[in-house]
Specification:
Number of strands of chain A: 17
CATH superfamily of the largest domain in chain A: MoaB/Mog-like domain
Largest interface: A-B, 85 and 84 residues
Low-confidence stretches of chain A: none
Largest sheet of chain A: 6 strands, mixed
CATH topology of the largest domain in chain A: Molybdenum Cofactor Biosythetic Enzyme, Chain A
CATH architecture of the largest domain in chain A: 3-Layer(aba) Sandwich
Order of helices and strands of chain A: EHEHEHEHEEEEHEHEEHEHEHEHHHEEEH
Shape of chain A: elongated
Strand order of the largest sheet of chain A: 2-1-3-8-7-6
Helix content of chain A: 40-55%
Mean pLDDT of chain A: 93
Oligomer: homodimer
Chain lengths: ~400, ~400
């Protein structure tokens, strides 16, 4: 399997606010060709560091793609560094120089001298014409490896890759097929999930398995690379077929859909309407639900009852209950859910009350109430993390609570 | 000056949709310490490649920071690779293991066996306690260089860097004086802001000026690096003194505080209480407000009235008004704000109604109502972007509306 390394060149990409996005697009393109990206780097405009980075990359990867540093100025060093790393010379190409000059003429401008720098090619390189700018790219084959120099501006890079590189790759790369499977899981910690499925996925290097946790849930990705589609799907069937039964009740989607979309679709299908009564989450539950377009099909609204007084005033939670049990309690979560359901006239109502921190012994303790046509249930959970994480995990768990009820 | 290399570890970061954002935050922190980042890399969960990357980094940089790969699973290889790269052993720490076990106990869970993996330290490393998660970090000094292992989850990484690394760096790095100024601006597009202040900041290379736009507002950062504090402050005074008057009415804070914090402090100072009535934002306004600890000092709660029926039922918006003007109108925004203020008994109430999309000609049109002791005002705004961006900018504008009123 050929692995690729992408090196983005430019000191501005090493500042706190700049992101290299070319490598994301290139990764997609390379993956489609069956090539995995094994490393990405950003290197500044520094001849020695860049040369060292190219040498290191050629030792570890079959394909090395450099983006940027092909401009006409002093700090455009990619050509120089590539030549040094390969131990080759840079040679001037009159043909390329003429092309650049012609391009300037077309825009009614005169080529300035520094642009001649862009007409130098590494010995043995194929020039890659640039139909969006002046700097040509370069395709260099070296001891069975491929080194490609692409311009930094995204529209130049994309056009050049699509028009000049794709066909060349297809000629030199073995045909490969990549197929993926994905499960999104809610309501369990990452370490528990891993312990459950690691005994299976660690037995396979193909497909590869990635487990990625976020506030929206845990994603399990399987990715198979094979010569044919049949082979890839068969491998995925084999591994997914073992993993899926272990996770089944926790799987919320198989296509990356977030839980707020899954629950929304369930409500729509069942013709049911939902309301909420939020204390600790302060609106986050409603926000997640309404982040889905057309959520008005099933979400009517609800209450933010942040103070005790509002729990009584807006939801009718008895003052006695709040005094006896405190606002963070099973009976209050129950009364909040039932109050919201009754006062909005919705079919289901979710309530949340708890301690999101930042301080206190009970931080992370949450009560989630769910009132519905079949009665009311309350769950108590204890969540880790900071205020924002606790709130987000609470929302995830609330929606999963409703998902399970709707699926009963 | 010592240069740093940051290596983000994780195969998921080598896929087309994932970005390593930890390195951006770390770059800002290192820059503040006077350390330039000379290379950033992303390496997958591959023992040999990761070991080679660490070795290469230690050859080129004085400081090497690894982020991620400290979890408990098979593919968390950072500890192993760091030990190999340095030619050191990994040793088990019973003390760290006890700390991890204790953490699990606090969350009423039992530590599973794989978590023992997180209790291994590279020989000679200082363990960096993790107050947000299980994996400790490691600080390793090696032949005059520094290798640091940090956890991948951003909240864990940030907390650990701030609490464990900053002081250690200050002890080993030469003292440099860096002084910064920051303005956070709300309620104007980034391009307008840049056009306004670019004629000033482009004349200076020290301080450097960075403009960073997010859904919470636009941050203008000035950063001066000098030999003395006096020099740095004088440079900042010179540039900020020209920029500030141009932005004055739009500046919401000078210390990076988000608008929800600024407005919260204003409400607390004035002893005023706030409620909300949200339609298009579906809870996001309440969520932002309550993301601030102790927001219960001034936020009482409110209403999510996503459907027309709820606007009438929960807020008393007359059905006639909805029929005549539609829900997205000045009179309905007014009635929502007044309804929320009256029914909750709060001093101020903010209401939001509008079209967040994804479709329709009126997408981005929002009415924001503000009811208070001095009467009710409604603003109509038209916002660009997708559904999520429109909703977030609406919340930003709503809070800025209230900020201006409170400052009158």
């Amino acid at each position: 399997m050929a692995g690729a390394e992408i090196i983005a060149v430019g000191s501005e990409l090493l500042t706190p606010a700049k992101i290299d996005t070319n490598s994301l697009w290139l990764t997609g393109q390379l993956n489609d060709l069956g090539v995995e990206v094994v490393r990405k780097s950003v290197v500044g405009d520094d001849r020695e560091r860049l040369t060292a980075a190219i040498r290191g990359a050629l030792e570890c990867a079959e394909i090395v793609i450099l983006c940027g540093g092909l401009g006409p100025t002093e700090d455009d060093l990619t050509r120089d560094a590539a030549a040094s790393a390969l131990g080759r010379e840079l040679i001037f190409s009159q043909e390329i120089c003429d092309t650049i000059e012609e391009r300037f003429r077309r825009f009614n401008r005169k080529m300035v001298d520094i642009n001649r720098r862009q007409a130098y090619l590494v010995t043995g390189a194929n020039a890659l014409p640039n139909d969006r700018g002046t700097a040509p790219g370069q395709w260099i084959e070296h001891q069975g490896k491929i080194l490609i120099l692409l311009p930094g501006p995204p529209e130049e890079l994309k056009s050049m890759f699509a028009k000049q590189c794709l066909e060349r790759f297809k000629r030199v790369l073995p045909p490969r097929v990549i197929r993926t499977r994905e499960f999104r899981v809610a309501g369990m910690p990452e370490s528990d999930l891993d312990q459950l499925i690691a005994p299976i996925y660690t037995r396979y290097t193909n497909p590869t398995t990635t487990i990625l946790s976020s506030v929206g849930g845990i994603d399990v990705h399987l990715r198979a690379q094979c010569d044919t589609e049949q082979e890839a799907e068969a491998l995925l069937d084999e591994v997914a077929g073992q993993i899926e039964p272990l996770l089944a009740p926790r799987i919320i989607s198989r296509n990356g859909e977030p839980i707020e979309k899954v629950v929304g679709d369930l409500l729509r299908t069942r013709g049911a309407r939902l309301s909420v009564a939020e204390s600790a989450t302060g609106g986050m539950l409603g926000e997640w639900i309404t982040s889905i377009p057309n959520s008005s099909d099933y979400f009517v609204g609800g209450y933010l009852t942040y103070s005790d007084e509002m729990k009584t005033r807006l939801l009718g939670v008895p003052e006695e209950l709040l005094k006896t049990h405190t606002a963070v309690s099973e009976p209050v979560a129950r009364a909040m859910a039932e109050g919201a359901r009754q006062r909005t006239g919705s079919d289901y109502a979710l309530s949340v009350t708890g301690y999101a921190g930042p301080d206190g012994d009970d931080i992370g303790t949450m009560f989630i109430g769910l009132a519905g046509p079949d009665g009311t249930e309350v769950r108590r959970i204890k969540l880790p993390g900071d205020r924002n994480r606790i709130r987000a995990l609470t929302v995830q768990n609330s929606l999963d609570f409703l998902r399970q009820r709707l699926n009963q």
